[in-house]
Amino acid sequence: MLRRSYLSEELRRGGQPRTWYLPITEDECSGAGRLFGGTGLGAAVRALEADADRPLVWATGQFISHASPGETLVVEVDLMAEGRATTQARARGHVDGREVIAVFATLGRRDVHRSGVWVSPPDAPSPLDCPLFPSRSSSRSVSANLERRLVRGRIEAQDPAMDDGRVAMWVRVPEHLVVDPPFLAVLGDYVPWGGRDAVGGGLGGGQSLDNTLRVVDPVDTEWILVDVRVGSLVHGYAHGTVHLWSQDGHLLATASQTCQFRNPRRMEPR
Questions:
Q1: What is the C-alpha separation between 3 and 62, in angstroms, rounded?
Q2: What is the span of the domain harbouring residue 61?
Q3: Is residue 115 part of a domain?
């Protein structure tokens, strides 16, 4: 089967230069029925790489408002500074003029002869030795389209908190996709899960406010280890990082996020 890049078929060029269109379906959304933040960032990254004709180094997206199935996300690219090796750029994603996501990015590649990686992956059983990740929604969504295996985290809502702020899961790369920055942007959007499991029950749903992806070295792999490390959750806001590892322990990318939480909704007496 011919492998393709994430969103390479769904995201289409518009009639104006550096303008792209993403028709939103449930497959681009979260279980809550809203555009998944990582997918919005992935669409911007796909457009930025195509228009700059350079690979992504890093991108940061701020999520401003929601978009829903049936709407079309319009992504407009602005190449602000183009050097010999590096391009500084931004992208704006909107629906009917309503701002949805704002992205800044650097793209390029330099041939430097020295390199190193100084973080290490957590110990994890092989993917098929891990239980299926508990699905919290029965609807179609980005996460429901992925095979996920829980390495570390709560299975049931009443399970104790992961009080060191560490959770992890294996995600199988769909056989028709290559491992590239737009796909890694999706997997970098899991800090809300880490924050919820870090403190246990008593929190409502988490909502991403941003997603910053820093690309290290994407390589082909059947499974990706999503290693979430939540540093703090105070006053309803959690800050955390995500390391994305290949099955053989190769660092693909790192991501960081801030997300907000609410208290669970309580039924008001009639």
A1: 30
A2: 12-110+131-260
A3: no
